[in-house]
Amino acid sequence: MNEITRSLRGNSNAARDIAAHLHPYTNLKKHESEGPLTIVRGKGVYVTDDDGKEYIEGLAGLWSAALGFDNERLARVAYEQMRQLPFYHSFNHRSHEPAINLAEKLLAMAPVPMSKVFFANSGSEANDTVVKMVWYMNNALGRPAKKKIISRIKGYHGVTVAAASLTGLPANHRSFDLPIANILHTSCPHHYRFAQDGETEEQFATRCAEELEQLILKEGPDTVAAMFCEPVLGAGGVIVPPRTYYAKIQAVLKKYDVLFVADEVICGFGRTGNVWGCQTLGIEPDILSCAKALSASFLPISAVMVNERVYQALKTESDKIGTFGHGFTYSGHPVAAAVALETQKIYDEMDLFGHARRMSEPFQRHLKALADHPLVGEAMGVGMVGAVELVGDKKTKAVIEPVTSAGATVAKHALERGLIVRNMGDRIAICPPLIIQPAEIDELFSRLRAALDAGAEELRAAGKFGG
Ligand SMILES: Cc1ncc(COP(=O)(O)O)c(C=O)c1O
Known about the structure:
Radius of gyration: 22 Å
Number of strands: 15
Strand content: 5-15%
Number of helices: 16
Bound molecules: pyridoxal-5'-phosphate
Oligomer: single chain
Helix content: 40-55%
Structural class: alpha/beta
């Protein structure tokens, strides 16, 4: 039995999981024979499975557990808030202090002046909310045709119907009958994969902006409302757009009065070396969505910030109709909001964003050093997030067939060595909790290099890799 295949017999966690639990983002058939990796507890950057084996969580769960996997203060705040006011909603002019406090805090942190904060429970809900706000806004402004929304190939914005449509990954569309109408995908700003021969980063960025402009002109500027961008593309493979890209993209969007929506669900709260990815990448958004590290992932909560222009339009339309007819039972849930606010206090008190910036140096040094590994075609990252792309031939950038087999092999060897990373196809992502310390960064990369060595060995033995 390998590391992943736990006992599937009797009343084990694995057997019960297979019998009862339908998993997200999982090959459901394979799951019946392989079973789950069941995590039972966490401490710092480590999590422990039900066999007692400890792992460095090299992806902070899902790019999200900035404080790692234990925190007494957050547990206490949740308990106290549950005792005082376990639930209240914010529909129909109702409110509560945790939501008010958190909204104020987010406005004070925003990368550009923002007017109001809307709360939801997940990144997907936040992004679906933005799509509806943009449509609502353009109805308010008397531009009913200006409704199309652009996102990018390999962009990730979630899985609800509109968010999954924005996501530019085939697995989120295939067999789900997506994308919905009026969603357009423009080029992916990944220089390593998509630049033409001899094209510099700047030239490539110019071409991406020209392609965006052509798309807007082809569709008609009067029909294009907004563009969604993750500052750094996460689930599409950790892609840091090239220098000058966002300046050029934003110039095009401004020219045609197309809103810039920054999806900061991964990048927000220190991940890229600043509070926001927008600051690292030079973006001035009209709307910003965030989630994940908002509450260090201790409880589900997400937020959408809108600027004054967007807010005024929403206000006008809601007054005309009688209500802004959108919201979730748990929008700004008091326990989640209290935990998120305390999370932000903890970040401030421990200067977590400063710590993350300081840790970026050893993190990026280790990451870039992996570029010399025979399996690695590209090592790319910024701040405390990065990825390596595995290739069969560094010169030609040829993939190892079948696609994803190299990524899955290395991720498996990492797991065996007590390191959880995620392979997105043949890119291995690393995005540890921001509290990580220098010795833990050393250990993470030492395990990853060992996994790359073992992966290369296995692929060579199978005749798939000659490097
Ligand atoms: C950039 C980005 N946007 C949106 C989402 C969707 O968030 P959720 O899974 O909370 O719906 C994710 C999730 O990973 C994400 O990375």
